[in-house]
TrEMBL record:
InterPro entries: AGP_acyltrans, Plipid/glycerol_acylTrfase. SUPFAM superfamilies: Glycerol-3-phosphate (1)-acyltransferase. Pathway: Phospholipid metabolism; CDP-diacylglycerol biosynthesis; CDP-diacylglycerol from sn-glycerol 3-phosphate: step 2/3. It comes from Papilio xuthus. Its EC number is 2.3.1.51. This is 1-acyl-sn-glycerol-3-phosphate acyltransferase. It catalyses: a 1-acyl-sn-glycero-3-phosphate + an acyl-CoA = a 1,2-diacyl-sn-glycero-3-phosphate + CoA.
């Protein structure tokens, strides 16, 4: 046992040294911590979730633990636009998609929006125990690119309309760290028009502290902006292309503006450091 403690202590000391002096080591260590702690945050409350399966409130405890993880990794969050959230109605909530750490964005939003349901790719359902936990808090899993995906999404119109669910989707479909949002897919907009529910755009500022190509994962600030709703009540399917264009332009403008703001503050911080 003594030898094991010595070896463990040496390994921990080495990891701390690498974390301090190597940005590449810091990148991998932070992502490993993100994955491990996210799995623990999701799986530990599973016994409690079994009391009321498929209830969106099951995600509140994992979300709280996830918020602690993000702060431990040096990410600071600011949420703006809470006055635009209307919990008396359902909505289709659209977010820009940058990285797997967008999971932290969902953990910030979950306690702020009632009756949230996330749409996710089918592969995550089989990533036990995380997939099991996500299933228990009501995540809607789809096979991207398959005809069944649109059928599943269409079925969510009823949940949005009659049960006042907030259906959270990433309309770009693919995560990226670029300055321009990728073209939006139509599925979410069909749901909104069918349910006569508003689009609720949510824009997450650029992760200036994260660079997958250069293997950099630092610390920094992220601003989540909940924009005013875009109504769809009087729209038909023929109006969907214009609705997509309006939504994407609105989100792009906010993304560019707020990302420039956080980049400016990061530059000032680095100058003082």
């Amino acid at each position: 046992m003594a030898a094991f403690n010595v070896v463990l202590g040496c390994v921990m000391a080495l990891l701390i040294i690498l974390f301090t002096i190597s940005s590449i080591a810091r990148y991998y260590i932070k992502f490993i911590l993100f994955i491990v702690l996210s799995l623990l945050s999701a799986s530990l409350p599973i016994p409690l979730m079994l009391i009321r399966p498929f209830d969106p409130r099951n995600a509140l405890i994992p979300a709280a633990l996830s918020r602690l993880t993000s702060r431990m990794l040096g990410i600071r969050w600011t949420v703006r636009g809470l006055e635009n959230v209307d919990d008396t109605r359902g909505a289709v909530v659209l977010l820009n998609h940058q990285s797997s750490i967008d999971l932290f964005v969902l953990s910030e939003l979950w306690p702020l929006m009632s009756r949230c349901t996330v749409v996710s790719k089918r592969e995550l359902q089989y990533l036990a125990p995380f997939g099991t936990a996500a299933w228990l808090w009501g995540t809607v899993f789809i096979d991207r690119g398959a005809r069944s995906a649109q059928t599943v999404l269409n079925q969510q119109s009823l949940a949005v309309k009659e049960h006042k669910r907030k259906l959270l989707l990433f309309p770009e479909g693919t995560r990226h760290l670029g300055d321009k949002l990728l073209p939006f897919r139509k599925g979410a907009f069909h749901v909104a028009v069918d349910a006569r529910a508003p689009i609720q755009p949510v824009v997450v500022s650029k992760y200036h502290f994260l660079d997958d190509k250069r293997l950099r994962f630092g610390s920094g600030e992220v601003v989540i902006t909940i924009l005013p709703k875009i109504e769809t009540e009087n729209l038909s399917k023929d109006d969907i292309p214009a609705l997509i264009e309006t939504t994407q332009m609105t989100m792009q403008e906010a993304f560019t503006r707020v990302s420039a703001e956080t980049k400016s503050r990061l530059a000032i911080q680095q100058k003082h450091d």
